[in-house]
Amino acid sequence: MRDRSAIHGRLHAPVLVLLVAAAPVLAQVETTPEAEAERWWSEAMRFVDLKQTAEALAALDTLIELKRLHPELELPRRFWVVHAATAEVEGLHDVAVASAQRYVNQPQANAADHYAYAIQLVFDAYRDATLQSAGDREIYTVSVGGRPVDGMEPPVRRNTYSYRPRRTREAVAAGVYGAVVVGYIVNEKGRVEYPAVLQDPGYGLAAGVVTFVKRSRYRPAMLHGEPVAVFQIVTINFPPLP
Predict the structure, then answer these.
(1) What's the predicted TM-score (pTM) here?
(2) Considering only Cβ atoms within 10 Å of each terminal Cβ, which end of the chain, N or C, has fewer?
């Protein structure tokens, strides 16, 4: 029995030495940026499920800081829309809009979950800013809550064949795809005012769509037979190249 205990003792000593030596390596494996990101994302989603939005936002902000320290780190695809929603609940509207903007600018964002919520946040911010710039003018929307406004006839584009946005060389070279969304006002004379990019995949794609919008001419919207100014958006999709 003594011999056996002695053998066990001699075996345990090297194992303990190896474990002590390997501890920093094991700790490093457990605290990689990817592992940390996964942990904080799980925490954030747990708080979201519990409707503890302040705690969820704190966890999401920790992920943003982790991304700042490790730019190569990839965040979950719906990260920014979750951040936008929690920030909005917490009363941080400007933060919510900025996060929603980052979400919709992702490639093919308009085909992803929660897109309608994110683009609505961006559009509402644009509309509010435009209304402030427009002063006392009355500007309508053609629908409210997805339903047409009673007595409203939407504007109709006249010069439908005059210009079409094209993919830029930079976008082709980079293989960039996605949707460009531009908001604007069609005034009482059918002219375009206050065009603004609401969604932009980058690489110059938005510039062509803005040019397209500025060159557009409309028959103005009519409300109970009278011409009125209305908010309008246009979405131009640039699909993946074959």
Answers:
(1) 0.79
(2) C
